[in-house]
Amino acid sequence: MDTAQDDANSPDFQLQEADSGPNMFRLARAYQQVCTDLNPRIRQDELNYDTRHCVWPGQSADQRKNAVRSGDTQPFPWKGASDLRVHVVDEIINHGVAIDVMALAKANVRAVAVEGGDLAKAAIVSNFMRWLVLSQMTELPDEAEVLANYRRERGLGILGVFWDSRVQKTQQKISLAEIADTAPDVATAIQNGLFPEEIATLLRQFFPEISAKKAKRMVKELAENGETTVPFTIQQVNRPMVRAYAVGEDIFLPPNTTDLQSARSIFRKALLSPEAAREKVISEGWDKDYVEDAIEHCIGAAEMTPQFTTGNVDTRFGTERLGVSSSDIPAGLIEFVYAYERLSDEDGVPGIYCTVFCPSLHLANDQEAEEQYAKHELLGYRDGEYPFVEFPIEKLSRFLLDTRGQPEVLRGDQDAIKTEVDARRDNASLSTCPPVTHPVGREPGRIGPGAMVSERRPGEYGYMAVPPAPQASVEIQGNIEARTRKYAGRPTAEDTTNEWQVKQQKQIAYGWLNKWQIVFRKVFTLHMQYGPDEEFYRVIGQQSDKPSKFNKADFNGKYDLYLAYDVLNNDPEMWQAKIKAMGEVAAQFDRNGQVDYSKLLQKAFDMIDPILAEDVLVPQEMAAQKEVTETQGDISRMWAGVDLDAPQTGINPELRLQVIKNWMTGVPDNPAVDVQARVMADESLRKRIERYSQQLQFQLDQRENAQIGRIGTTPAGSVGA
Q1: For residues 257 and 621, which has the higher predicted lDDT (pLDDT)?
Q2: For the residues 158-184, what does the mean pLDDT come to?
């Protein structure tokens, strides 16, 4: 397939119009072509799986060679030789997945205003996102682990980000007594069998989901039994959700795709039971007749599965389809496909459209089924993007799929380690029970612990000399293991540089967390678009029915979300050393007062626990305002005749002195009309103010003297009272 068909960035790319409706035969064939094109990658993913899980033909449970392989007449080198499963790759992947999951858990979500903005609103966004991710998106930890496994084993994982709005039908009992409480005349008419047609029509007005037949049956049941049941729909789920997908297994895109958001189409496969498919009619609005047609003709059919074999005959259409396999769809399940395409409406406005269909119904040239589908709609997400985010472990070229899983790279090293381990194990077996030599033509006696061996002439029987296992084998294995650890970005005993830190930081910060930032932006945008207003206001601690300075619309598109993480934070000794070093450097070299110690404190707490830091530390601006408010309160109490001491710890004495100065001199924000006159006239008040100020000045002098002692000069910008 040429790039122009797949990449929306191509100059030859033309958006199709959505108003004419989807061409189902074209979609089915496009899906089939993408599956075929992905075959090489699918085979590589299978090899990666086998490498990671140590799977090969002829394995035995006792991890010894008991089966013939590769056309040999007997197991090589002998039956029962060592055949250990050496889980080198699996251990490396598991370690990497653990780091990925831990990094995501420890990397706190924070909001930053895109175009300036106020601090309070940014804090609201941060707190709301933490609540949303932690308490509502309960599937996220599991999906993140699955995604991390896909990324490291296959080289690429894709995360879907959707608004999950599912409804469910249930039954509720209503009684004649309940009707009598609100409409006694209607209850009397039902009880006496009067006006059944009119009452049935009235019931349909109250319960629009019921049919005319159901309404008549309800009237009859109420008259005979005094109660009936009525179906109604409830909102089962209404929140953002994420789901991890594997390329070539769950999700399909052209191999020459350069950017996920510029792909012409993306296909997502779902295997559903007939019951689950019927539930989609209610929960997602699928076409009922189309679903029943798929259930009737497509259970267990796999016309569009990615693994292709020889031709199969379709009994429904009577045609032979080459390269089709029906073995990949489990019995009793139906293959449905979500096709996402970027189309334009009649006004030329582009958008992401989603079409749900069963490929088996459209493979043959069946005109009746050609334009039928389970669902076709504009996705409608505000960002105008595909609801997917790619997570590659590396970027070898501009093509998104040009990436390797770790098993592909480490397969040779794992095989080499296995060879050394098997060889030493076989050598130990030979040393423990060496072969017996005996005269030609004479069978040896039974050999084993406690066996009775008859003695003939000396030298007739003996044990074959077995050479010792070479020590170099252990060294070779150690060198290979060190190489695999180095490749995977894990520290080794010989490491003297921070190479492993750089590799881990790249894999985690730039290949993992930066993609999650995109995910969280999508999640926030979706909730701002579809989330209940009352839920948002409840979480931020505001009543939606009362006027407030915060409006939900004020947050749309105005805040960015980011995640920060340092791999060194995994080592407590390392981050403690970093905190100490940062403090020492600031004390020794901050001659001009350039270090913002509040930010330094923030960084230190972030290293320890970013979530705890968010709860413990308040923003600098809020802390400053708190000190201003507290100082103004102290002034009011001293004005009222209360003797007060200045706080001794955890304060900014310079700021508090400035507040007192402003109060004494009268600044525009705090006009002092008769302050100075009152202070001069009231000696006790003057002494209280002076004593309070002197205590603050003493604290300020102590801090400055301590800094002068460290750096040898007075810091620039020092302000006296």
Answers
A1: 257
A2: 86
Candidate from 143-152, 176-185, 421-430, 487-496 with smallest mean pLDDT: 487-496
Half-sphere exposure of 436 (CA within 13 A, CB side): 13
For residues 254 and 36, the answer to whether their CB atoms sit within 8 Å is no
**CA separation for the pair 42, 51 (Å, rounded):** 14
- Helices 39-53, 88-106: crossing angle, 10 deg rounding: 100
- State pTM to two decimals: 0.70
Q: What φ, ψ does residue 96 adopt, rounded to 5°? A: -65, -40
Tell whether the model's pLDDT for residue 497 goes beyond 80: no
SS3 for 114?
A: strand
Q: What angle do CA 715, 720, 721 make, to 5 degrees?
A: 160
CB atoms near residue 474 (< 10 Å): 12
| Residues contacting 568, CB < 8 A, separation 6+ | 501, 574, 575, 578
Distance of CA 465 to the CA centre of its chain: 59
Characterize the bridge pairing of strands 388-392 and 375-378: unpaired
Question: Structure tokens of 518?
Answer: 């995109």
What CA–CA distance (Å, rounded) separates 432 from 453?
18
State residue 333's pLDDT score. Answer: 93
- Could you give the angle at which helices 406-432 and 140-154 cross, rounded to 10 degrees? 80
Helix, strand, coil share (%) of the chain residues, nearest 5: 50, 15, 35
DSSP one-letter string for 419-445? HHHHHHHHHHHHHHSPPEE--TT-PPP
Q: Is the pLDDT of residue 434 over 50?
A: yes
